[in-house]
Amino acid sequence: MIDFxxxxxxxxxxxxxxxxxxxxxxxxVVTMNKPxxxxxxxxxxxxxxxxxxxxxxxxxxxIKLDKRDEVKPGLDKKVDRDMDITVNTAKQVTLDVDGKExxxxxxxxxxGQALADLGVDARDAELNAKVDQKLKxxxxxxxxxxxxxxxxxxxxxxxxxxxxxxxxxxxxNEAGVQLDKDDFLSxxxxxxxxxxxxxxxxxxxxxxxxxxxxxxxxVEKKKSDSLPKGETKVEKKGKDGQKExxxxxxxxxxxxxxxxxxxxxxLSEPETKVIVEGTKEKEAPSTGGGSGDSGSGGxSGDSGSGGxSGxxxxxxxxxxxxxxDEIKAMLGGPGSKWYSIAKxxxxxxxxxxxxxxxxGLFQFKMATWQSMGxxxxxxxxxxxxxxxxxxxxxxxxxxxxxxxx
Length: 405
Known about the structure:
Layout: H1 8-24, H2 26-32, E1 34-40, E2 43-49, H3 54-60, E3 70-72, E4 84-88, E5 91-97, E6 100-106, H4 111-117, E7 126-127, E8 140-145, E9 148-154, E10 157-163, H5 168-175, E11 184-185, E12 198-202, E13 204-215, E14 219-228, E15 232-236, E16 241-252, E17 255-268, E18 273-280, H6 324-330, H7 337-346, E19 353-354, E20 358-359, H8 366-371, H9 383-397
Parallel strand pairs: 1-4, 5-8, 9-12, 14-18
Antiparallel strand pairs: 1-2, 3-4, 5-6, 7-8, 9-10, 11-12, 13-16, 15-18, 16-17, 19-20
C-alpha cells in the first residue's frame, strides 16, 4: 500500500534550509529553484523544488511508492523547469461482471477509467456507480451488467432484446412476454443469460376432453346335443356397448405430453353374445356294404392332373368302415378343401368306381395310387388310408391333381 502521510516536521526543517539558502545567496537559489506540476491521483499542485530527479521530488514530498504504482516520467528522470509529474497509485477493486466476481488492481482514478483499464466493455451496461466516481485506495466495489443480444421465442415469434439484463426473467420483461400460470422457460428464470442466447417460452395447457369408446360384449357358451361334438354355432351375435370417458390432457406448445383418466360413464350396455357348442357323439362305424353307389370293376388309379376325374360310377357302397358323416368330419367339414374335393369326385363314397379308371373317395388312378405306397384297388382301402395317400399326393404334386380343387 502507498503511504501518503507527509512528515510535517521534515517539511519545517526543509523550509528552514530554503530560507537560510535565500539569505545566503539569493541569485543561486533563484537559478536552482524549478517550478513543476505534481499530480497525485488526479490532484494537481505546483511545486518548486531544488531536487535533481523525479525521485528526489517525491522523496521530498514524503511520497512512498508501491511496486504497482505508476509514475510518469520515471523516478530517475532529471527534473526540468515546468515539468509535469504524474503519480497514480494502485487501488484494489472488487469487480463483478454479470455475476462473475474477481479481485483486481488498477492505477485508474475513476470507475470509468478502471473499467477501460481492466478491459470491460461498459457501453450500454448497467453500473452500480457513476463512471466519473473517484476510486478509493481500498473498498472499491464495481458491479457491471453488460448489454446482451438475446432472442425470446414465444408463440411462434422471435422477440429480439438488447439490454443489460441479469436474469432470464428480466429478459422476458424487456421483450414484453408474460408467462401464464403453468408456462415455463427453457432455462430457470433466475439464470444469467449469455450474449446471443435463445430463450424459449413453453406454453402449457391443461384441459378436459371427453371420448367415446366401445364396450365389448360378454360371451356366453351353451352346450347342445343337437350339434356334433366339436361343432359350434352363434345363437346370438350380441352387440357392443358404448361408454364416455373423461380425460385430463396436458399439452406443451400444442403437443400432448400427459393424459390421465378422470371419470367414466356407460352410455349403452353391451348385449351378450351366445355361442352353442355341440355335444353329440359320433355315430358308430357301419359294417357291410355302404350306403353310396359302389363303382363298377376296373383298373384302379387316382385322379390325374388337369381334371382326369370323372363322374363316380354306379354301384353299392356306403363309406366302407366309416359312415358318410364320419367321412365328412374326417375331411374337415363344410368349408374344407378336402370336403369339396371328395364331394365333387365321389359324393363321399370311398368305393366309387369310374369306368375311365378312377377309384375311391379321391378317384385315384392305379399307377398314382401305387406311387403313393398303396396296394390293391383304392376303392377297397379304408377311407382313412385313401385320405392319407391323397394328402401325400397333394404334398408332392399340389392341388392340380384334382380338377375339383
